[in-house]
Design a protein that fits this description.
four-stranded antiparallel β-sheet, 13 helices
Length: 250
């Protein structure tokens, strides 16, 4: 059991419980709730410390359903305190959906659709892989990989897609990495890349990309066609279109 430090952990308990409140009250993402809470709670401006707090917050939110199954409908601050202590009651008798910390209806629906394979899916949720897609429209593959490695990113090249690398480790948050900020390396899941691969885009194609924002797949189409395809990228959200426009300018 971790002994709580009154001053430091009171701040953490307030942060975690407030993020949970924002998510449940306004139905917003963890990212938005964290940013909003930090603006009020004055989180550290140091990027590494802020990233550490964000990862801690994500881990807490991921376990909220599980904690409520064990301890009942207790207050948010008590949930945060128990989470930080790190020693929970016996979980041997709780329901499977509690173990996976997902809503009961979601668990039952996936079991109905997938049968026992649903358990494999739930177990895989905790094994998130971060991918970086190199953008050879900006620089050569060799230059991009060298820049990433110089910034302390350890990579493993994907066996299926030549432009995709698995991030094994990184000294600092990816958004702070120069190659990522310069759009030479783009965070993009393998599944997202495979959608574009299934399209088999070629030079001189005319391609309609619906719901295109924020433009990650659009930029991959441009790269695979050597920027020689005509792409019509549409989205219903003006705000997201603006984000895509700024991203593709890079």
């Amino acid at each position: 059991m971790r002994k709580l430090q009154k001053g430091r952990d009171k701040i953490l308990i307030d942060l975690l419980s407030n993020v949970l409140y924002e998510i449940e009250r306004y139905n917003i993402s963890i990212e938005k709730a964290f940013v909003k809470t930090c603006s009020l709670k004055r989180c550290s401006k140091d990027s590494e410390e802020r990233e550490r707090l964000f990862q801690l917050t994500k881990e807490f939110i991921k376990n909220v359903i599980r904690l409520r199954c064990i301890y009942g409908d207790i207050g948010r601050k008590n949930l945060a305190r128990i989470f930080l202590e790190g020693t929970w009651r016996d979980e041997s008798n709780i329901e499977p959906w509690c173990i996976y910390s997902v809503p009961k209806w979601f668990y039952e629906r996936l079991r109905e659709l997938l049968g026992e394979e649903a358990h494999d899916l739930f177990r895989s949720i905790d094994k998130r892989v971060i991918w970086l897609r190199i953008n050879i429209l900006k620089a050569s593959e060799e230059k991009i990989v060298r820049s990433l490695e110089e910034d302390g990113v350890i990579l493993e090249r994907d066996k299926d897609l030549w432009y995709l690398y698995k991030v094994i480790d990184s000294r600092k948050p990816l958004r702070e990495i120069k190659a990522v900020k310069d759009f030479m390396a783009i965070p993009q899941d393998k599944a997202s890349c495979l959608v574009v691969e299934a399209l088999r885009p070629e030079r001189n194609d005319k391609i309609l990309d619906m719901s295109a924002a924020p433009g990650i797949k659009t930029s991959l189409i441009a790269m695979l066609t050597e920027d020689q395809a005509k792409i019509y990228a549409l989205d219903i959200s003006k705000k997201r279109l603006y984000i895509m426009k700024e991203l593709l300018k890079k």
